Amino acid sequence: MAHFINDKADLVTDAIEGTIAASGGTLTRLDGFPHIKVVLRADWDKSRVAIVTGGGSGHEPAHAGFVGAGMVTAAVCGEVFASPSVDAVLAGILAVTGPGGCLLVVKNYTGDRLNFGLAAERARAFGLNVSMVIVDDDVALPDLAQARGLASTLLVHKIAGALAEDGADLETVTRAATRVVDSSRTIGMALDVCTIPGSPKEDRIPEGQAELGLGIHNEPGVEQIAFASARQAMTAVVAKLSPGLRAGPHVALLNNLGGLSGLEMSILAHELMRSDIAGQIELLVGPASMMTSLDMRGFSVSLHALVEDDRTLLTAPVTVMAWPGCRDMVPARSVPLPDGLTPIRAMPSTHEETRTFLVRCCETLIAAEDDLNALDAKSGDGDTGSTLANASRALISAVDTLPLADHTQLFRAVGQELTQTMGGSSGVLLAIFFAAAGDAASSGLPMRNALQAGLRRMQEIGGAQLGDRTMVDALAPALDALANGPEAASKAAREGADATADMTRANAGRASYVNEAQLQGHKDPGAEAVARLFAHIAA
Question: Which positions fall inside the DhaL domain (predicted)?
Answer without folding.
Answer: 352-539
